[in-house]
Specification:
CATH class of the largest domain: Alpha Beta
Radius of gyration: 22 Å
CATH superfamily of the largest domain: ACT domain
CATH architecture of the largest domain: 2-Layer Sandwich
Order of helices and strands: EHHHEEHEHEEHEHHEEEEH
Number of helices: 9
Number of strands: 11
Largest sheet: 5 strands, antiparallel
Oligomer: single chain
Strand content: 15-25%
Length: about 300
């Protein structure tokens, strides 16, 4: 942590009052309580291979604390180039948090559009949108193993029809519907394959599922937005207990899977976004409750407004 060289501060009020509310805090606390309850269940398991459950419980406890405290403090960062100081809410980055999911998706969307624009327009390869559905049974409740299995099945199908050695590939995300059925949605680049053929192979892989859909993408931006909506919206249920189960279900599962030519392409920058004023690198300074914010610090929204005005 680096210190700010600054003698003048201002009181901007509590982050909670700016970014949260009592109703939202109560809901977050309730979800966090149920997440911790699931973690306690893992800690109650006692057998020779206890370490994986201990690790999972620790991860769930961290998720609960982060989710409950989202937006309750300010984070202060500064640019090492121009010296501009920015402040905004400390976020939890949880996949059931709508604000954090939108932030994550906006970063991924920019990168996916870059990759889509770089794809060759000539030849028989094209961009397509693929949906794979897994058959469910009455009373079915998906487990972590079901999520991993459908991703593995999707990988087999994609590698069969659109392998990287043919300069093809795909981005894939998972959707768990309101009736607990599981879908894979994928943006595929490659040769057109008839839907009937995809359906037959999907049935061969899964043993019980044949419902698929594929269509050509004419506007990449629209379909990328459609793909990413499944990581920007939390599950359909607003029940804190169900949201806690979803966190446990998706623990350790990547939000977006990449295959073929998109594998390891890097959908997120490993470093923080560059300073929009000078292109320099931001460094973390500290967390603050709002009483000691540097006098010249800009809020993130103020910074974006200045950048927008300069662009115009």
């Amino acid at each position: 942590m680096r210190q700010l060289i600054n003698k003048n501060y201002r009181d901007v009020g509590y982050a909670f009052d700016r970014y949260s509310s009592n109703e939202k805090a109560e809901f977050r606390d309730s979800v966090a309580k149920h997440i911790k309850s699931i973690a306690d269940g893992y800690l109650s398991i006692r057998h020779l291979n206890f370490r994986p459950f201990l690790k999972r419980a620790a991860m769930l406890y961290r998720q609960a604390e982060r989710y409950a405290g989202c937006g309750n403090e300010y984070v202060v960062v500064a640019c090492g180039g121009c010296g501009n100081v920015l402040t905004g809410p400390k976020r939890c980055e949880s996949r059931i948090c709508e604000d954090c999911a939108k932030k994550y998706a906006s970063r991924v969307r920019h990168r996916q559009l870059e990759l889509a624009k770089a794809l060759p327009n000539s030849g028989k390869r094209r961009l397509m949108f693929l949906t794979l559905t897994k058959k469910t049974r009455p009373g079915f409740s998906p487990q972590a193993s079901d999520v991993k299995l459908i991703f593995n099945d999707a990988r087999k199908l994609i590698n069969r029809f659109w392998p990287g050695k043919q300069r093809c590939g795909a981005f894939a995300v998972i959707e768990i519907g309101s009736n607990q059925n599981i879908h894979i949605h994928a943006l595929v680049y490659g040769f057109y394959i008839p839907q009937s053929r995809i359906s037959s192979h999907w049935l061969k892989i899964t043993g019980d599922s044949f419902v698929v859909h594929i269509e050509q993408v004419r506007q990449a931006k629209r379909y990328i937005g459609y793909l990413l909506k499944y990581i920007t919206k939390p599950p359909h249920s607003k029940d804190p207990k169900e949201l806690a189960k979803f966190i446990d279900l998706m623990m350790g599962v990547r939000r977006i899977r990449t295959y073929g030519i998109f594998y390891n392409c890097g959908l997120l920058h490993k470093e923080s976004c560059p300073c929009p004023f000078c292109g320099g690198k931001f460094y973390y300074c500290r967390l603050d409750d709002g009483k000691m914010i540097p006098e010249h610090a800009l809020f993130f929204k103020e910074m974006m407004q200045i950048v927008k005005e300069n662009q115009n």
